[in-house]
Amino acid sequence: MKTTGTFQVKMQPLEPYAQTKSGAALGRMSLDKTFSGPLEATSRGEMLTGMATVKGSAGYVAIEKVDGSLEGKKGTFVLQHFGTMQGGNSRLIVEVVPDTATGELTGLSGTMDIRNEGGTHQYDFDYQLP
Questions:
Q1: Which domains does the chain have, with CATH numbers?
Q2: I want to staple 100 with a disulfide (CB 3.0 to 4.6 A). Which of 37, 70, 78, 112 is the partner?
Q3: Region 92-109: what's the mean pLDDT?
């Protein structure tokens, strides 16, 4: 199954990592999201970032727990993110962590594509349920 919708995200810096005088900078952010569409849910999570000294190059990993309903089925699940950027090119992998889904979503697996179009965050969620 594939669904598409929108989400709003609020990110707040958490305590900074110790910074070195040169080289990459590390950061930590909290994530709070509200999903709309076939996925009606909220999520909370954390993101770790590594910002290169070269503008436009960075990486991040994140974990977020999603709580709500997917196509009317209620439960929770965890999403894991892995992203890199270099010279205007980016790669992002967002997957459901195996065996984290609960309730009517138990057994959920899948991947999510995230994009920002005209200032609106959108998701495409390609998923399977048993």
A1: 2-128 (2.40.350.10)
A2: 78
A3: 98
